[in-house]
Every structure is written in C-alpha cells, then in structure tokens.
C-alpha cells in the first residue's frame, strides 16, 4: 500500500481552513499555529496538549517521503504475482467463511460484495495480521504538514487525526500508522476515517485497528458512497472500477483488487 499512498492522498483531500498554518520555518512555531487551528476546528485543549506535547520532527518520515517514486515499472502480471499467491488466496477464502454472517450484513447495508472487501483487507495488511505501521500518526503528520511540498494536504490530515482522538474512536496511544499517516487494517487516512468510518459493532466508536466489523463496514461505506454497485462488473473500464478510484487511483492496484476478489470466489 505504501507504494500507492500518494495516489490515495490526492483522492482524499479534505477542506483546510483559510487560516492554515505557514509551512517551514521554526517547527515549534508551526506546532503552535496548528494548535490554534485545531482549537478553532473544535478540538479540545486537553486533546491538543496531549497530542502535541513534546512532538518532534521525524526525519525518517521526510526521507522516506522524498525517496518515493510515483510511477510503476512493473506490468500487472509482474505486480500481481508478488501480491496474490496461493497462501493469501487460501487465507482469504478462510476469512470469507469465518466472517460470512458479518459480510452478509455488510452486503445488505452497503451493496459491496464480500470478495472485494476481503481482497482489500488482504492486500492492505494480510487481514489485519500484517504491518499496519508503527509510527505515531501525530508526529508523522506534523512532520509532513510542516514540510512545504504538500503542507495544506497534510494539515488537513493532521486535523482529522486529532478529531479521531476527540471523538473517542482511538486513544492517542493507539493512533499508530504508516509513513503517510494511514491507520488500521485497511489503511485509512485520517480524513477518510472521519468521512467514511462506521461503528458496525455498536460499541459507540469507530475502531479501524481492532474491530473487524468496523474495518469491513467502513471500507464498504467508502466504496458505496463513491458509487460501487452490487452485482455489477468491477473489471477495468466498468463503473465499479471507477468507483474504486477513491480507494486508489492506480489502475494496476485496482486491477489487483479485482483479480484477487475473483480468485477468492473461484472465478
């Protein structure tokens, strides 16, 4: 997923305030400005103080971000062979069986087929058992927001991350993610977490790190909201394939989702 994160970032930009903090310059001054923006956006002083207390720049995040290449050098066949093997297919089929009742409820509510959801889940984090990232999201996003290349984008993501804590969805200690701030078992950016997150287990919060019902329902909600239709084709050129652009702009990745989904149901 990390290879595609720029495409995802551009597809999930949320509105940023007109008083957006100035990028670059003194880091502590930037944090103070972001704190004021967060308070104006309705984040409590307690959450702001806890989140920004002692925050520092993460140069490893900046170095990783600047090393990224945003083009593909592999064909679809080469790429899919590295992502969809027999082991992952067999595990995915087991997940379809294990979560059959849950997936039926999600299909009924959101109209997204179970194999698409399980394919995304498997590709992103090996069904929640793989790497969900180990970086503090606030530090990561503050670092990227301070950098002037895509400052407004990451300022928006930073405010969304603070709202995740404000809403009580995740405590700050669990706000851990990848190199662009992606969170949870299907790697939602904070803005998507806020926009599409669903409390499907009924515990009063959206937990995309630990709750499989919330993870799969939120993924379905994202696709449904962007026009995915149950029973329609999802191959390249279809309306459903276009609906998946909100998940990832990269054609090769969306083709891999479709291929994996077909393998899961024996097509």
Strand order of the largest sheet: 1-2
**Weakly predicted, low-confidence segments:** 1-19
| SS strand fraction | under 5%
- Rg calculated over all Cα atoms: 19 Å
Average pLDDT level: 92
* Separate helix tally: 14
> What is the terminal separation in angstroms?
24 Å
**How many strand units?**
2
What's the main sheet like? Answer: 2 strands, antiparallel
**Which class of the largest domain in CATH terms?**
Mainly Alpha
Bin the helical content. Answer: 55-70%
User: How do the helices and strands follow one another from N- to C-terminus?
Assistant: HHHHHHHHEHHEHHHH
Give the class from helix and strand content and strand pairing.
mainly alpha
Shape: globular
Q: What would the CATH topology of the largest domain be? A: Lysozyme
Gross CATH architecture of the largest domain: Orthogonal Bundle
- Tally of structural domains: 2
Which key terms come to mind for this protein?
1% strand; mainly alpha; 267 residues; 2 domains; two-stranded antiparallel ribbon; disordered N terminus; Helicase, Ruva Protein, domain 3; Lysozyme
Short description:
The chain is mainly α and 267 residues long. 56% of the residues lie in helices and 1% in strands. The protein is globular and about 55 Å long.
How would you describe this protein?
The relative contact order is 0.17. 56% of the residues lie in helices and 1% in strands. It has 14 helices and 2 strands, in the order H-H-H-H-H-H-H-H-E-H-H-E-H-H-H-H. The protein has 2 domains: 2-68 and 134-181, Bacterial muramidase (Helicase, Ruva Protein, domain 3); 76-131 and 195-264, Lysozyme. With 267 residues, it is an all-alpha fold. The protein has helices spanning 5-11, 27-40, 45-52, 59-67, 76-83, 86-98, 100-110, 114-125, 137-146, 151-167, 190-196, 212-225, 239-243, 251-264; strands at residues 135-136, 176-177. It is globular, with a radius of gyration of 19 Å. The protein has a two-stranded antiparallel sheet.
